[in-house]
């Protein structure tokens, strides 16, 4: 049993400062699998080491995607390791051989959690979800479901289900992203509106969005040039205002 702080310090550097210099990196399998099962930030940090063991040393982890799915909770959009997690999640979900129900479960869960996410996280996760649709066209039924439930309480998706195959995500619809089209931040609303059109085949590059912060978003907004905002629907005519104004009938400017 290691202190949580020590776990984090080791896992942060494990993938690039320890594993490459070990004669038998597979000796870290037990340590990483235990860390991956702890939950929270420790599980997120263990992903880097597991990724190396899975791709380079043929580690088999039967419940890997189930555990990855369980890591998706409201804090995932707020933790400081968010960029690292979504970079690796993008790699793990890049295979076109993944079953549609699994990818749909990830899409649906990310979309549901996006309802309470900050704008800087939404500008990253919406292109992330669009890329998943490009890789897995079978999941587009979530967007184009003509006979979806009229009442949101009838959504068949089971948010509390820990097993992706039992979540019934493929039977649901993506009303969460449609609601984000009315988001208070115009950039988020514009990003969510992309789903109203047919997606291009070229994936969005999300590498520049992974570490987008609220400060950067604020700086971007205040640097925008202010456009002339009309305050009246009808153009002003004369000194006293509108065309049929009573003052305009009795006063004129010479």
UniProtKB/TrEMBL annotation:
Coiled coil: none annotated. Keywords: Membrane, Transmembrane, Transmembrane helix. The chain crosses the membrane at residues 31-54, 85-107. Residues 43-192 form the CCAAT-binding factor domain. GO terms for biological process: ribosome biogenesis. Belongs to the CBF/MAK21 family. This is NOC4L protein.
């Amino acid at each position: 049993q290691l202190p949580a702080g020590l776990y984090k310090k080791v896992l942060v550097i494990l993938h690039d400062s320890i594993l490459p210099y070990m004669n038998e990196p597979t000796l870290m399998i037990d340590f990483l699998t235990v860390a991956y099962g702890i939950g929270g930030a420790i599980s997120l940090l263990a992903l880097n080491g597991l990724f190396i063991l899975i791709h380079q040393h043929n580690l088999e982890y039967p419940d890997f995607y189930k555990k990855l799915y369980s890591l998706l909770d409201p804090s995932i959009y707020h933790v400081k390791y968010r960029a690292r997690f979504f970079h690796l999640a993008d790699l793990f979900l890049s295979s076109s051989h993944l079953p549609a129900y699994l990818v749909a479960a990830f899409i649906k869960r990310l979309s549901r959690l996006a309802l309470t996410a900050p704008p800087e996280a939404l500008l990253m996760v919406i292109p992330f979800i669009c890329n998943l649709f490009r890789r897995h066209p079978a999941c587009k039924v979530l967007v184009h479901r003509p006979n979806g439930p009229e009442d949101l309480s009838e959504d068949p998706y089971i948010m509390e289900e820990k097993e992706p195959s039992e979540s019934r995500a493929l039977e649901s619809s993506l009303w969460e992203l449609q609601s984000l089209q009315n988001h208070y931040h115009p950039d988020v609303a514009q990003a969510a509106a992309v789903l109203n059109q047919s997606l291009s085949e070229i994936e969005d590059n999300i590498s520049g969005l992974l570490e987008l912060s609220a400060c950067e978003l604020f700086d971007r907004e205040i640097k925008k040039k202010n456009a002339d905002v009309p305050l009246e629907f009808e153009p002003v005519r004369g000194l006293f205002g509108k065309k049929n104004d009573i003052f305009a009938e009795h006063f004129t400017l010479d």
